[in-house]
Design goal:
The complex is a heterotrimer of chains A (294), B (285) and C (252).
Chain A: H1 2-7, H2 9-34, H3 38-61, H4 70-91, H5 99-118, H6 123-130, H7 138-157, H8 159-167, H9 176-201, H10 206-220, H11 224-249, H12 253-279, H13 288-291
Helix pairs in contact in A: 2-7, 2-9, 2-10, 2-11, 3-4, 3-5, 3-9, 3-10, 4-9, 6-9, 7-9, 8-9, 10-11, 10-12, 11-12
Chain B: H1 2-6, H2 8-34, H3 38-61, H4 70-91, H5 99-117, H6 123-130, H7 138-167, H8 169-174, H9 179-201, H10 206-217, H11 224-249, H12 253-284
Helix pairs in contact in B: 2-7, 2-9, 2-10, 2-11, 3-4, 3-5, 3-9, 3-10, 4-5, 4-9, 6-9, 7-9, 10-11, 10-12, 11-12
Chain C: E1 8-17, E2 20-30, E3 35-39, H1 46-54, E4 61-66, E5 69-70, E6 80-83, H2 98-107, H3 118-130, H4 146-158, E7 164-168, H5 176-191, E8 195-200, H6 203-207, E9 212-217, E10 219-224, H7 226-231, H8 233-241, H9 245-248
Parallel strand pairs in C: 3-8, 3-9, 6-7, 7-8
Antiparallel strand pairs in C: 1-2, 1-4, 4-5, 9-10
Classes of the chains: A mainly alpha (294), B mainly alpha (285), C alpha/beta (252).
């Protein structure tokens, strides 16, 4: 196995990309979870799929646009989708929670139409949907590296505004303009992360990669920094473990990673619950004021 | 057009299944919408996928159990999904919105994993994801007929308690309705409906079929009954027109149905918006 | 004089939540046709007490009797009409007309095969007339004002022909004009010999209208005649609310 990784190009790229994604996803995921945007991330990843599908259709009907990677169109759709969500929520003040399912369904519906038009119901599509090791090229690896740098740079530079956005959405610690700018930047970064993670775990499972490790981290961590550290450790474990197992048995990459992540999540919950019932304190719950300390 | 009618006998089964699904899905969808449970239906449909995948795997690995229709596993897994969502909601009280993507992706992941174990990443799997009404056969029609019948009968029996709980859960309990029981029955209804709707629109789009017609109807209807009625009309229109479109344009059925529903939805929002604006202008004059 | 069974009777009722006592040793009764006001500061356990009477929560100690029967054995749920805090539970985006909402009051006493016929429709119209909302029957409930919604919910309770009407803070979020109309409505129902339990934090208005006042803060600090209550108001309220009760009181 190790020898394969060292010798086979795409495997090496896949593993290196996986390790980097294991850092990117939880770092952004922590903010997504705390800002209660979990479902929005889901919506954005589904929009990315329709973008890719549109890109594929475009390539088929307008071959001179071959240089546009469907990938970028996916990213564009993902950002556009995120900007659609808020106006739609205003339309439905009573049923805000319906906006996401409508976006999800519409995005997939459009994807299916575009995929049919592109005549792309084939193995590649499974790669987009559920992730695949084989699709990762040298360029993809470089893109992940760049995104890693962007994400880390963004989080480090904008750490304070981000915290304010996360914990003080209504307050007035920072000007409205400043918040809007950070919010838009954040949304675009999420779209970026969605698009690169998609390569390994697939569109349908991207949001899991951002949320499940953080959910586990939050169960164990006692401070805000620990949430980051634990989440990254868990994410690395899920991704590397999932990649190894899926390669060994020739299983679906994204499926294996997510199922592994979920099983581990249930184990963490179980352990925490047992520990707690031994010490007989409050029932298992996570609340923002318990764990978030600076 | 002539060709279309020549293929009518072949299309007849598809149309009949479509009419059934176009009716019961929005019918259950209205309650899901009013009870604000769209995400649960989404999780249930993904867990349904996992159940079918696992069921097929069990069927091929244990010949003894191969007689069991994978769809039965689908219904069972959907119910497990409902239970898991509730469990996680309790664990993450402050971040309960997180429980949905977790279960959702777990279902999808499990489905993908088991289909890949089966080496089943093929046309069947696509049909399962995105729906292929044209591929249904007589036995599918029979199953759909039976399940639709069961769903409608259960719904008729429990219509009043369900409506009460949907509108005002506390009041319903005061009048002696056992919320837990009605909730459980509703979950079963949802799981059954999803398991048949999957044929038309696929796992990925069932929620769309359960939300878009209702989201459209709610802009027009005032009473609960009129919203139910309109949702069914929009649902039927989407399925039937989607079916014809998918036949002519050779688009996957689910995509055609949902895209048509989306267009209806946007059209109604647009018309309503223009109507309101003109009313406002009228008042100003 | 004949001995009437009290509509409601509480004996030594206690309730605690997370080991914190919320209600301690509550004793009181409501006679048929009596109008009882329950007052107390926020967080005094008023809503908890109502929930125990309605069977939504179970008391840790003591017994609740409805019409002489213990709560667990009481089956004539239609004898009890309940109107909750307006903002609390109801699903305001729900697409239902006023008529449909009031009809729901009848649902739980109808078998599923029984058609919602002329007789039932008539009952709904009667209830709507009593609260003066018959002109709004076809309107969407979500579009009405707070006071109007409150009337519809009273109609939903009345359509069941209750013998005891329980109202939990019905005037919260309702404008002054609708509030007066509301009290007129309650008084007209009181004249029809309906027992009423009205929960409110609005002490001034209540004491002038009810037959009996209950002042609750964890335990009952006062139980009895409103005139007596008015006379010893200062003491009772200091006892129940603590030093700063003036701040909580409405000025009239």
């Amino acid at each position: 196995m190790l020898q394969d990784i060292l010798q086979v190009d795409f495997l090496r790229y896949a593993f290196l990309s996986g390790i980097m994604i294991g850092i990117i996803c939880p770092v952004i995921g922590v903010f997504i979870v705390l800002r209660k945007m979990s479902l929005m991330a889901d919506g954005m990843s589904h929009m990315a799929l329709s973008g890719i599908a549109a890109g594929l259709a475009l390539q088929r009907y307008l071959p001179f646009l071959y240089f546009i990677n469907p990938f970028y169109i996916g990213m564009l759709f993902s950002v556009l989708g995120s900007f659609c969500i808020r106006p739609l929520m205003k339309l439905y003040p009573f049923y805000r929670e319906f906006v996401i399912p409508i976006i999800l369904a519409s995005a997939i519906g459009l994807s299916v139409v575009f995929i049919s038009l592109a005549d792309a119901f084939n193995k590649d599509l499974f790669g987009y949907l559920f992730g695949s090791l084989i699709t990762i090229s040298h360029t993809d690896f470089l893109v992940v590296l760049i995104v890693l740098v962007i994400v880390l740079g963004f989080v480090i530079l904008c750490y304070k505004p981000l915290l304010i956005l996360t914990f003080d959405e209504e307050g007035s610690l920072v000007s409205k303009r400043g918040k809007q700018v950070t919010d838009i930047l954040f949304t675009m970064i999420v779209a970026l992360v969605v698009s690169v993670t998609m390569n390994i775990v697939g569109v349908l499972l991207v949001s899991a990669m951002m949320i499940i490790p953080v959910a586990k981290g939050m169960q164990l961590a006692k401070s805000f920094k620990q949430v980051f550290i634990y989440s990254i450790i868990f994410a690395e474990f899920d991704i590397i473990g999932g990649l190894v197992v899926s390669y060994q048995f020739n299983w679906s990459t994204g499926g294996t990673i997510v199922v592994l992540a979920f099983v581990l999540f249930m184990i963490v919950l179980l352990i925490k619950k047992t520990v707690q019932s031994i010490s007989r304190s409050k029932p298992v719950s996570y609340s923002s004021d318990e764990t978030v300390k600076f | 057009m002539i060709e279309f009618f020549q293929n009518l006998s072949f299309m007849k089964t598809a149309f009949l299944v479509g009419i059934l699904i176009g009716g019961i899905t929005p019918l259950i969808g209205v309650f899901i919408f009013a009870r604000r449970l769209p995400h649960i239906s989404e999780s249930l449909s993904q867990m349904n996928l996992a159940g079918v995948a696992i069921g097929s795997t069990i069927g091929s690995a244990v010949p003894y159990l191969s007689g069991i229709n994978p769809r039965i596993y689908g219904v069972i897994f959907a119910l497990i999904g409902a239970f898991l969502v509730e469990l996680l909601r309790k664990v993450f009280r402050d971040f309960s919105d997180m429980s949905i993507p977790i279960i959702l992706s777990f279902g999808t992941g499990l489905g993908a994993l088991f289909f890949s174990i089966l080496h089943g990443f093929n046309a069947d799997f696509f049909n399962y994801l995105f729906g292929s009404l044209i591929a249904v056969n007589q036995s599918d029609l029979n199953n759909t007929l039976i399940i639709s019948f069961i769903v409608v009968i259960i719904l008729l029996i429990f219509y009043r308690p369900l409506l009460l709980i949907t509108f005002d859960a506390e009041y319903a309990q005061v009048t002696g309705i056992r919320k837990k029981w009605i909730d459980a029955i509703f979950m079963v209804l949802m799981a059954l409906t999803i398991s048949v709707s999957v044929q038309a629109v696929g796992v990925m789009l069932v929620t769309g079929m359960m939300t878009l017609p209702i989201a459209t109807a709610i802009f027009i209807g005032k009473s609960f009954k009129s919203v139910i009625f309109l949702s069914i009309i929009f649902g039927e229109a989407a399925v039937l027109i989607g079916l014809v479109l998918s036949y002519y344009l050779s688009i996957a059925t689910g995509g055609a149905i949902i895209t048509f529903s989306l267009l209806c939805f946007l059209l109604v929002i647009g018309v309503k918006h223009i109507y309101r604006m003109s009313m406002r202008r009228h008042i100003q004059k | 004089m004949t001995i009437k069974t009290p509509v409601l009777d509480l004996e030594n009722v206690s309730f605690s939540y997370d080991r914190k006592p919320v209600l301690e040793d509550i004793n009181f009764g409501i006679e048929p046709g009596e109008f009882v006001g329950l007052v107390g500061p926020n967080g005094s356990g008023k809503t908890t007490l109502i929930k125990i009477i309605l069977g939504l929560l179970k008391a840790n100690h003591g017994e609740v009797r409805l019409f002489g029967q213990p709560l667990s054995k009481f089956k004539k749920l239609s004898w009890i009409g309940y109107v909750s805090q307006k903002s609390n539970s109801f699903n305001s985006g729900f697409p239902a007309t006023v008529f449909e909402v009031v009809s729901m009051g009848l649902y739980s006493q109808m078998k599923f095969y029984k058609w919602f016929g002329k007789k039932e429709r008539l009952k709904v119209w009667e209830a709507l007339e009593k609260v003066g909302m018959e002109d709004y029957a076809k309107q969407n409930i979500g579009r009405l004002s707070g006071g109007q919604q409150q009337r519809v919910f009273i109609a939903r309770a009345l359509v069941r022909n209750p013998k005891l009407l329980i109202l939990d803070e019905p005037t919260v979020g309702v404008d002054a004009k609708s509030e007066n109309a509301f009290y007129d409505l309650i008084e007209s129902m009181h004249k029809e010999k309906l027992a009423i339990l009205l929960v409110s934090h609005d002490i001034g208005t209540i004491t002038s209208k009810v037959d009996k006042v209950l002042c609750l803060n964890k335990r009952l600090h006062y139980h009895g005649d409103p005139k007596q209550f008015e006379m010893n108001r200062q003491e009772i309220l200091t006892d129940a609310y603590g030093q700063h009760f003036e701040l909580l009181e409405h000025h009239h």
